[in-house]
Input
Amino acid sequence: MILSKFKYQITKPVLQLLANIKSNKVSLGFLCNYAGISTDALSDDVKSKLNIKVSSLVHAHDGCELVLKNSLVFCILNYTHENLKLESAVAVVTNKEISGVPCILVDNPMFVYAKMANYYRSLTTAPVTAVVGSIGKTTTKMMLGAVYSQYFRTCYENGNYTNIRRILHLCQHLWKRYKQIICEISEADKGTIEAASIALTPKVSVITAIDMSHMEEYGDAEEIKRQVCSIAKHMDKDGVIVVNKDEFNSFEYLNERHTITISLKDDADYVVTNTTVDSKGILFDLQDNITNQLHTIRLSNVWGRHNVGIAAQVFAAASFLNIPHGKIIKGLKRYQPQGIRQNVYKTLNGRIIYADCYNAVAKSIESAITAASTIPLEQDSKRIAVIADVEEAGVVSQEMHLDIVDILNKSDFDTIIAYGSKLNKAIADYDQPIIKNIIRCNTINDVLRNLRANNKKGDLILFKASHSWHLDRCIKIIWPISYYYRLFKEKLPFLLWRIGLEFH
Output
């Protein structure tokens, strides 16, 4: 049964999200999910007319036998609805008819869902800064948060908004408490970034480095660029996009939006010069060609030229929002990596841990290797790298892993522990002499055994891989006290922040 138009007079916000349904054609690209509208999103009038009694946000993956009782349900492409009791739904917003269920056919259920989120976003003037790209998103978000929070009450400890359901939750519950909102948005599924743009109407968008991640989903690099740049489609009319000219050359996909550029080598709005590395971190100058000023910036306990580029983008974004330059510089200095993303710290028995094992592609592995190579060590100390396979590389997997082997073989590291069949095959297929001590491992126990046998006090150990390889477990097992002590120190300020206490 098809409801070409919803038969009830629906009030805000459902009226707004269903009023623009003009066609029964279907075009959608968000994979393998169901999403139900929370009754919090519906007015009392709508609840009464639709007889909605359940007050929970409904979400189910394929194969789930969840009964979606009295809900307005949004169905997403590539679903298998046979196991879901959709008959109890009030109506289903879908891209194709489902037998025996009241259906509202729309071009793109995810975009309609995004309009629901945008209703709540429109209730506040708090600007949104969206962070998109293949690598460096979380670092950028946290660095933006460290800077913005020097001047505004800022929401940024809110995870990675990988789907539009979580963005709706953000819009419903967080807007009124903050003056600035920072959202990290993943490109893991097609359409997610554009839907986020519809929902959030960003004032500032920061595009990080774009690389060949999620190739299994997109097929080619140009499609990844188009998807990432779709954040520009529904931005605030007075908004701006901040890009690194050294990493980004896809301006044709930005819908002629106003851009601010940074560079570490070419002419740009902000140009990095005089970068130096010492035991404390990185020191560099930033030439502001918009105001014709020169700023000296310190990043503490942070290494790697890629982080200099991120800091320059953060400075540009914050300046656009009129945060005083002194506050920006202070915030950048206060920023500290956390968790398993570029986090450098000493164990209690004198090892230096470089934990960067949340995500990985060839480019980010090279950046991590380069950054770790600049960290000063005591004489006779070694550099050890634990590297695992790259996931979701698709058709370029073999080429990418050969590139990784080349990077490792040319690095300053003394010992390489290679974990995973793809990386080990690439080592076997590598057509140049192997000059490094490369230890091949097939299991996590192999990694642990070889790691225990090949480190001493003063050594630096880099862990670089996708989170699915769980290299952080190696740190937890070998140096448990140091691991949990560091975790406690990191989480305490966040816990205090969650209960309303702010520390600067």
Remarks:
- The CA atoms of residues 338 and 454 lie 26 Å apart.
